[in-house]
Amino acid sequence: MIVHKKLTNGFEYIEVKNEAAEAKVALQGAHLFHYERAGEEPILWLSEASDFELGKAIRGGVPICWPWFGFNEDKSLPQHGFARTSLWEFVGSDEVDVKTTVLTLRLTHDEKTFQIWHYKFLLELKITISDKLSMELKTTNLDDSAFKISQALHTYFSVSHISETAIKGLDKKPYLDALTWKKELQEGDITFNQEVDRVYQEVDGEIVLGDKNRTIHIKNDGSSSVVVWNPWIEKTLRMSAMKEDAYKYFVCIESANAFDNARILEPQESHTLVASFS
Ligand code: TA6
Fold first, then answer.
1. Is 154 an active-site residue?
2. By C-alpha distance, which of 158, 170, 274, 277 is closest to 226?
3. Does the structure show a pLDDT above 90 at 115?
4. Helix (H, G, I), strand (E, B) or coil at 84
5. Residue 31 beta carbon below 6 angstroms from any ligand 1 atom
6. pLDDT tens digits, residue range 212-224?
7. Which architecture, in CATH terms, is 2-265+273-277?
8. Residue ranges per domain, the chain?
9. Which H or E element spans position 183?
10. Which label site among 10, 45, 89, 124 has the fewest CB atoms less than 10 Å from its CB?
């Protein structure tokens, strides 16, 4: 079942239910903000304090950071780009079988995007909702000049408690610590007892997120960086749309091409970033 919903303030989203899972995707940002397998707790975290307002990014789910990840050199431009606050077009849906639904959304250049970024592009997102969730973000350069993109599927995973959370699969991987801007090497699993904001590089295999109740397997393709972020106590108090204890209940593991892994696309060239969670 696919239902197109609209809030009184004009905010629109698509609700999907099939025998394996349910999901909700906002047209603003093609932002998946709910995904739950039948009979299980939601996999994505969504802030109780999040706004569903045009022009403001939803806090939680899977914001799409594009065409840049993090800050732009021009500090007047929005952090993490404009895709997450732009209105996407809902292209269509395919109920492949009783347990699998595919949604397609797209964003292309217009006068608004030209004010922020001077290139012609097509950005397409395919979301497969089943007992596994998969997201494919395809960028096509429609311009006469090459352009550079960095990007992330900035997934907020819900966890039982951050102190019971461990991430496997990044042992011995180099990372840039975004708190100190130093290059470091991961030793063992990642656990949390303070703020963590790291961009892991040269990532190729599966990443496994475990907490007290469950294990989630994350596979990425077309991506060699993974961002791991939890704001901990102090930063949470300064974040928009987060309650003061929010940091306890999520961790971001982001399927990315960031910093050294930014991609240059020649005219007519495409690149696809894929993330899947099971
Ligand atoms: O991906 C980690 C990060 O870049 C952090 O530095 C943190 O600020 C976060 O993203 C959230 O950014 P936002 O713009 O959504 O507040």
1. yes
2. 170
3. yes
4. helix
5. no
6. 999 999 999 999 9
7. Distorted Sandwich (2.70)
8. 2-265+273-277
9. strand 182-185
10. 10
> Does ligand 1 have an atom closer than 6 angstroms to the CB of 254?
yes
In angstroms, what is the span from residue 27 Cα to ligand 1's centroid? 21
- The Cα 243–Cα 109 span in angstroms is 35
* Cα pseudo-dihedral 51, 56, 60, 61, rounded to 10: 110
Residue 70 Cα to ligand 1 midpoint, Å, equals 7
Active site residue 109: no
What is the tens place of the pLDDT at every residue in 5-41?
Answer: 999 999 999 999 999 999 999 999 999 999 999 999 9
Q: Which two tokens stand for residue 159?
A: 């966890």
Which atom of ligand 1 lies at the shortest distance from residue 229's CA? 2
Instruction: Tell me which of 36, 124, 136, 254 is the catalytic residue.
Output: 254
- Tens of pLDDT, residue by residue over 145-177, are 999 999 999 999 999 999 999 999 999 999 999
